[in-house]
Design brief:
Structural class: alpha/beta
Distance between the termini: 32 Å
Number of strands: 7
Largest sheet: 5 strands, parallel
CATH class of the largest domain: Alpha Beta
Radius of gyration: 18 Å
CATH superfamily of the largest domain: Response regulator
Strand content: 5-15%
Amino acid sequence: MTRPDRHKTPTDTTKLRVLLVDDHPMVRERLAAAIHEQPDLVVCGEAEDRFTALDLIESTKPHLAIVDLTLKQSHGLELIKDIRSRHPNLAILVVSMHDELLHAERVIRAGALGYITKQEATDKIMIAIRTVLGGEVYLSEKMAARIATGAVGSRRGATTLPVASLSDRELRVFEMLGQGHNTRQIADDLHLDMRTIETYRARIKEKLDLKDANELLQYAIRWMQAGGNP
């Protein structure tokens, strides 16, 4: 859903345009309020799903897209990859509730320039926005050090999170299982056949050392109930 007119002022053409993509209206309102306090920034639109966001990028030409990982009927990682392939010069900052250790490297690899959690103070999020708009990468000091040394994703023992061993697609299937989707629903949503989803399920069970489908389902449900955090 977009409400760009609500944010326009006579000097909008001189400001850097920011698109907010998040499925929670209250989060968008918080971010919009903080951005409106900046003399050189303006919110040019809001979206709660992947396809609306892509349409708004075409129509509003933002300088920055702030993207959550959890979106309506889609995933932020898929949106980031879409943006990077269609609009390679658009800066992307992920603001999400999910654990940085599991997701930060994934979003950077997909094409985002920064990752910050929603729990951070508003002024820190504004620092992240400024950093990414300046063309630099924004991560916590701890995460930046891990990525710089190749610790994340390059060695199985580098993290205590078993879920970190999953590929992007496997993680998406795992999360959808935890949201209550069956194999057919996942296949339809991801535009894949059921055999492919079964293959993903088998790989996930192997990587997470789970015995059967029921154990996988219970693990996925507990994971999602915890907000996708360890």
